[in-house]
Amino acid sequence: MSALYYLIKSDMKQIYRDPMLLISLVGPFLLILFVRFMVPFAVVEYDLSAYNELLASFFILLIPLIVGIMAGFMMLDERDERMIDYFAVTPLRKQGYLCYRLLLPGVLTVLYGVLYLEWASPVSLSVSATSLVIPLIAMGAPIISLCLVAMAANKIEGLALSKGVGLLVFIPIVIYFVPGPLHFVGGIIPTFWAAKLFFVEASNLSVVLLIGCLGVLLNVLCILFLTKRFLRKTD
């Protein structure tokens, strides 16, 4: 418990000292404010109503991206400072540390995601689609965090990798502009499935459930794969 308390206290200090982390923490809320008040004006002014699903899916994918990169950089700092080795010999252990680090961005993403869908989204999803989009984006944040710490050797590499990971938010463009079933090639990308739910008819419940379940399965597999890679890298 003392190790967990230290982690929480350390997080607060780190976020307070680092303007980048602080901006990342409040960034999704600022994004939601932008979508709530500026996007409707742009849609009317420039007649973008045909792109509502595209805009809604693009902006919601930015939430796990921002939160996931923030958590990933914190993990990279702790790995560079060998703090993970310290937690490995406490009752928290490495697995407990990792659970905390993955749970935190997931919870933040859920809170921001619900606020976005209920208050700011340009389109309204059905209850079934919403109940699947939220866990999908919640898993997206830990996946992005794990990508950074499992693939990058240090924070410099992590910064470069984060730019590449940022391209994942553009998957809605593939869904919108690539015709027919061809865009399902993008299904190998975890963010595809959350975005795809914005383009499915709410009345087609069986398709919504199929897409959601496939997305959850792929995201879980990604988390398991990246977790094993992370644990091997920190041994």
TrEMBL record:
Any signal peptide, and if so, which residues? Answer: none
Coiled-coil region = none
Question: Which spans are transmembrane here?
Answer: 21-43, 55-76, 97-117, 129-153, 165-193, 205-226
UniProtKB keywords: Membrane, Transmembrane, Transmembrane helix
Q: Does the keyword Zinc apply?
A: no
Q: What is this protein called?
A: ABC transporter permease
Organism listed in the record: Oceanobacillus kapialis
Source taxonomy: Bacteria, Bacillati, Bacillota, Bacilli, Bacillales
